[in-house]
Amino acid sequence: MKICVLPGDGIGPEIIAEAVRVLRALDLDCDLTEALLGGCAVDVTGDPYPEETQRLAQDADAVLLGAVGGPQWDGLPRDQRPERGLLGIRKQLGLFANLRPAIVYPELADASTLKSEVVAGLDLLIVRELTGDIYFGQPRGIETREVDGHRERFGFNTMHYSESEIRRILRVAFEAARRRRGKLCSVDKMNVLETTQLWRDVANETAVDYPDVELSHMLVDNAAMQLVRNPRQFDVIVTGNMFGDILSDEAAQLTGSIGMLPSASLDADGKGLYEPCHGSAPDIAGLGVANPLATILSVAMMLRYTFAREGAALRIENAVEKVLAQGYRTADICQPGTRKVGTRAMGDAVLAAL
Ligand code: IPM
Ligand code: MG
C-alpha cells in the first residue's frame, strides 16, 4: 500500500500525526511518503502543488491529506493560493467522485445545533462531482470591460458539464445508493440553469440502468432547506461541484461538528485522496486542540475504498464509536459531563480502543 501523506497547513500536521499513528497501529504493510501541498509548499517552492509532490501523488495508490490554507497566503495571486494546490491535485489525479458521509453518532446527537430529534440516527451520503463545474470552467477572470457605455471591472466564471462527466458521477451515486437504502436524490437548479437541466436529463437516463434505486430530483435551494428541516429523508444526495461544496458543509453541521466528517475523492479505478471535510482552522493551529477524528475516519475510508480492507476500516470506525461512548471529546464536540481532551489524547484514546 503506497500512501502519499500531505499534512498541509494549519491544524493539518497535528491531525495527520494522529491518523498516521492509527494507521501504523493496524500493522498493515504500508509505505508512507510525506510531501508538501498548499501554503507550506508555497513557502518552500513558490508552488502550492510542487512537481515533487505531483510525482509522489501520481505514484501512490492513495493520498492522505490534512488541510490547506491560511490567512498568511490570502494576499497571493490566485494561481499561488494554497486552495489552487488542492484543486490541482484533484484535477490532475482525475478524482471526480467525492464521497462525504454525514453520520450522527448517538452520543453526539445533542452536540448538533439542531434539535436532537431532528438529527438522531442521521446517516446520509453526499456524492459531489469534484473535477468539473464552475470550479474549473473557462473562461474565467476579472477584466475591465465596457459595460452599459462605461468601463468598469467585470467578473466572470463559466458553469459547464459534459454529458459523460454527469453520467460517470451519477453512476457512482446510483451504485452507492444500491449498497445503502436504495434512495438517490439528485440536486440541481434546472429552473434557471441549462447546465443543470442537462444534469437532470442525464440523471433520468442513467436511472434506467438502476430500477432498484428510487431516483428523485430537488432544486438546490429547497435541498438546503430540507437538509435542516428533515435531513433523515435523504439517503444519497448527488450534485455538482459547487452545490456539493455548499450542501456538504451544511450537512456536516447536522452531525454536531465538521470536525467529525471524513471524505474520499476517487478516480475511475479506485485510487483516492482522503481528507477531512473541514479546513485548516488557522485560529486553533498549533494549540493541540483540533479534533483528529475526521482524519482518522478518512483513513478508514481509504482502507475501504482503495485497499478493500473492510475489516481494518471497521476496526477504526468501531474504535471511534467506542471513544465517543467513553465520553472523550475535543473542544468542538464537548458538552457538560464529557471528558475534554486535546488532539494527541484523542489519538491515544482511539489507539487504546483499537
Ligand atoms: C472543500 C473545500 C475546497 C472546495 C476549497 C478549500 C477549495 O471547501 O473541500 O469543500 O471548495 O472544494
Ligand atoms: Mg467546502
Between the first and last Cα atoms, what is the distance in angstroms?
20 Å
- Looking at the overall shape, the CATH architecture of the largest domain is 3-Layer(aba) Sandwich
User: Helical proportion?
Assistant: 25-40%
- Round the Cα radius of gyration to an integer and report it: 20 Å
Characterize the quaternary organization of these chains: single chain
Taking the sheet with the most strands, its summary is:
10 strands, mixed
CATH homologous superfamily designation of the largest domain = Isopropylmalate Dehydrogenase
H-E string: EHEHHEHEHEEEHEHEHEHEEHHEEH
Q: Name every ligand kind in the structure.
A: 3-isopropylmalic acid, magnesium ion
CATH class of the largest domain: Alpha Beta
Outline type: globular
CATH topology of the largest domain: Isopropylmalate Dehydrogenase
Count of helical regions? 12
Low-confidence stretches: none
- How many β-strands, per DSSP? 14
Average of pLDDT: 95
The total domain count is 2
**Main structural class:** alpha/beta
Entry summary:
With 354 residues, this protein is an alpha/beta fold. It has twelve helices and 14 strands.
Overview of this structure, please?
Helix content is 40%, strand content 21%. With 354 residues, it is an alpha/beta fold. The strands form three sheets. Strands 2-1-3-12-11-4-5-10-8-9 form a ten-stranded mixed β-sheet, sandwiched between helices. Strands 6-7 form a two-stranded antiparallel sheet. Strands 13-14 form a two-stranded parallel ribbon. A hairpin with a 5-residue loop joins strand 11 and strand 12. The mean pLDDT is 95. Magnesium ion binds next to helix 9. The site of magnesium ion (MG) has 2 residues, from helix 9.
